[in-house]
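Appendix B. Worked example

We walk through a single record from start to finish. Start with the input: the chain for Imidazole glycerol phosphate synthase subunit HisH, Nocardiopsis algeriensis, length 218.
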Amino acid sequence: MPPRVVVLDYGSGNLRSAQRAMERTGADVTVTSDPHAALDADGLVVPGVGAFSSCMAGLKAAKGDRIIGRRIAGGRPVLGICVGMQVLFDTGVESTDPRTEEEEVTEGCGEWPGTVERLDAPVLPHMGWNTVRPPEDTQLFAGITPEDRFYFVHSYAVRRWEMAPLNPRIAPPRVTWADHGGPFVAAVENGPLWATQFHPEKSGDTGARILANWVATL
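Next comes the structure step. The output line below is what the pipeline stores for this chain.
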């Protein structure tokens, strides 16, 4: 039987493009907001586009933060994409009025420490194709070359990895980096919780390989 994957519908994200991309891996894919289906699936995809605060509000309304937490506690795979990755961190800080430098601070899911903040770059949003720098022991980027590029569209990201090693017997998270006005976190592999800042569903054959690598672990 193919692995069962749920794309979580909480009112944000490119749901159908994510569904089609996941189906090309051979997975049995459902788009739903049903918490039971999301908990029972072999893999859960959490997409996201737009503002951190809006995505977090939709996620909480759909009890998505609880679903993610329960799956992680049970060692059940979760894949966050774009803002679906960002909401996994402690906090999102967004500019509300560039003229006054007012900021809105939103609490995230808190699966990883860290703050999602505005990129320090002369051109925003960061939109287009970029290379990434995965660690040597990556599973997510298996088969990917240094020349391969991925599609990004965002103005905010995690610019510092803040999770300290907790136990020398446990493998630390594998963090992949990219650059736009400075380094930012492009992907994370941490036990059952994986995430990408880029859009694998919009990244052609290289993105398809990323999704296939994730599905192969289910």
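Two observations about the output. The chain is about 25% helix and 35% strand. The helical segments are 15-23, 35-40, 52-61, 64-73, 83-86, 204-215.
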